[in-house]
From TrEMBL:
Protein name in UniProt: histidine kinase
Alphabetized GO MF terms: protein histidine kinase activity
CDD domains: HAMP
InterPro entries: Bact_2-comp_sensor_kinase, HAMP_dom, HATPase_C_sf, HATPase_dom, His_kinase_dom, Sig_transdc_His_kin_internal
Superkingdom as given in the UniProt entry: Bacteria
PANTHER family: SENSOR HISTIDINE KINASE YPDA (PTHR34220), SENSOR PROTEIN KINASE HPTS (PTHR34220:SF11)
UniProt EC number: 2.7.13.3
Topology class, membrane: Multi-pass membrane protein
Organism: Paenibacillus medicaginis
Subcellular location per the Swiss-Prot or TrEMBL entry: Cell membrane
Domain Histidine kinase: 381-575
Signal peptide per UniProt: none
Domain HAMP per the UniProt entry, residue ranges: 308-360
Main location: membrane
Length: 575
């Protein structure tokens, strides 16, 4: 076997194609399994997070209904405040507040509360307030049916599944109703609680849709909320029956994920079509197999063509090597064969000595240049190496079931990517909030979840509006370090709203606050042109906003001692 063509073809088939097929097949299988497990796990985590938020929302409305017991006013006698029977029946008040005023306050305390009505137990009189001031058709209001269902547990709040509030004139909104009895706790306690009246809150089911953005659903995927009796509170596919839900949950083509909602003794169920969820994965896997097949055929054809063409250039190279035969190098290579490569080696030995001169003069300089380019490339690779290393550590933590550590590493990696990217000064409001949530997650774990971050965004705000990059995190960091750090618990709130042609972002906390002298000194620092010795974060954000958007924009600080601090940031709205 003296022909290099035969040697090349045989080695190509054995060493090239067989490992290629084996490695490609096992790599695709391992990658597909990993992606499926990761996608399913990630989806389960999102459903768990959504269920937690829903349960918190229910608890929030439950707390609103408890305001009938918690409200206290200065200058009101103790008898009037505690004797709810006298307040409701004689004074038409809840505590010291007129019932209509109390209901109006309840309605406008949350964007999704569409109506509130109070049914007095003594005579069945209905007091009501509706967000759009529509009239109440009391004969259509199923008050007695709801009160009968509450009779077994009169001291506990009750929730009634979604229905249309057609008892308000001209309204066909889908709502669910939360009810709580007002019990007179004054006087001697009896076996049966003394119910003075019942408060009903209609809550728009659109409240549930704000949580759907956490899941990336296909057109046929469904997320629904049911209670222990399979009453449906919400479904993104519209009205569904119990039989349809049961049949869907047994469909093997569906990935069914469930999480408990303790407040309604129910479940959040996500039914995801496997074909839609892994459609891109199946398509990518088929594409990889086709690409492997095409590459294999191309390699065989090109290998045969190249091996045939290899002999002619080698013969020409041997003829040209006679030109440089006048130089020699110290190292001589042995000739082990009589084929084309062997003859090429003989010619190479004759020009080695002359090539050494070229290596000393030209190649050394070229190697140095390549080393410089390599060092520059390494400096670009380091951030990506750091991201990849953090991701390996995070996946190792996930594998060890250290979910909290994995989430912290994931949040830190996101922050590094966000901060190290120097290519942009402005980002969308959505990206800035995502970075803020990653930062605050690490803060929450660090301080044992003592602090809570709440974000309230009005519907007219576009999440794609650009704002200054890294403008919210320094403010929230100040709130934690200087406002909440000395407290056992605390809340940081963010309100985002559109005011005429400006975007207003308010960051407030219920921490230690500042006295008037400290607040005045901080506001003076924001107006001074010289760099400050303190409040560097506030000054930095303020100057960056003014530099980019003009003197009319920036931030302002207000605070009260032992109450909290509020920082207002203003940006122009970009349409």
């Amino acid at each position: 076997m003296k022909s290099i063509f035969v040697k090349f073809s045989a080695s190509f088939m054995l060493v090239g194609l067989i490992p290629l097929f084996a490695l490609s097949f096992f790599s695709v299988q391992i990658f597909s399994g990993y992606v499926e497990r990761y996608t399913t796990s990630n989806l389960q985590q999102m459903v768990l997070y959504m269920s937690y938020n829903l349960n918190s929302a229910f608890q929030q409305y439950n707390d609103i209904s408890k305001l009938m017991y918690n409200v206290r006013y200065e200058g009101v006698s103790e008898d009037i405040t505690q004797n709810q029977t006298f307040n409701v029946n004689e004074l038409e008040q809840i505590n010291s507040t007129p019932i209509d005023s109390f209901l109006k306050t309840i309605v406008f305390s949350d964007n999704y509360i569409t109506g509130a009505y109070f049914v007095r137990a003594e005579d069945g009189r209905i007091y009501y307030q509706e967000r759009e001031n529509q009239g109440l058709r009391s004969e259509l209001l199923p008050v007695q049916e709801w009160k009968d269902k509450m009779s077994s547990q009169p001291a506990k709040a009750a929730i009634f599944p979604k229905h249309q509030d057609s008892y308000f004139t001209g309204s066909k909104r889908e709502v669910f109703t939360l009810a709580r009895n007002l019990i007179d706790t004054s006087g001697v306690l009896t076996r049966e609680p003394k119910v003075v009246g019942t408060l009903f809150l209609d809550i728009d089911t659109a409240m549930f849709r704000q949580f759907l953005n956490e899941l990336y659903l296909g057109e046929q995927d469904e997320v629904l909320l049911i209670d222990g009796e399979h009453h449906i509170y919400f479904s993104n596919l519209g009205n569904r029956t119990k039989d349809e839900i049961l049949a869907g949950s047994k469909d093997h083509e569906l990935l069914v994920l469930r999480e408990d909602i303790p407040f309604v003794n129910g479940q959040l169920i996500a039914m995801i079509h496997r074909a839609g969820l892994f459609e891109q994965l199946f398509s990518a896997r088929a594409t990889v197999y086709i690409a492997i097949l095409i590459c294999s055929v191309a390699l065989i054809v090109m290998g045969a063509w190249f091996s045939r063409r290899l002999a002619a250039p080698i013969r020409k190279l041997i003829q040209q090597m006679a030109v440089v035969e006048s130089g020699r190098l110290d190292t001589m290579l042995p000739v082990n064969s009589n084929d084309e490569i062997g003859r090429l080696t003989q010619g190479f030995n004759r020009m080695v000595e002359r090539l050494r001169v070229h290596i000393d003069e030209a190649y050394v300089a070229q190697i140095k240049q390549k080393q410089t380019e390599l060092n520059a490339l390494k400096s670009q690779i380091r951030p990506h190496y750091l991201y990849n290393t953090l991701e390996v550590i995070r996946m190792n933590a996930v594998d060890k079931e250290a979910d909290e550590v994995a989430d912290m590493i994931h949040s830190l990696s996101n922050q590094l990517k966000y901060v190290i990217d120097y290519g942009e000064d402005r980002v969308s409001l959505r990206r800035e909030l995502e970075h803020l949530h990653d930062y605050f997650y690490i803060i929450s774990v660090r301080y044992d979840n003592r602090y809570v971050l709440r974000c309230d965004i009005t519907p007219d705000v576009d999440m794609d509006w650009p704002i200054l990059k890294l403008c919210l995190q320094p403010i929230v960091e100040n709130a934690v370090q200087h406002g909440l750090r000395q407290q056992k618990k605390g809340t940081i709130g963010i309100t985002i709203e559109k005011r005429e042609k400006d975007l207003a972002i308010t960051i407030y906390d219920d921490g230690a606050g500042m006295d008037k002298e400290t607040l005045a000194r901080i506001n003076e620092t924001l107006c001074e042109p010289s760099p400050p010795s303190k409040s560097i974060g506030l000054k930095n954000v303020h100057e960056r906003i003014r530099s980019m958007y003009g003197e009319n924009y920036g931030l302002s600080v207000s605070s009260q001692k032992d109450i909290g601090t509020s920082v207002l940031l203003c940006f122009p709205v970009s349409n």
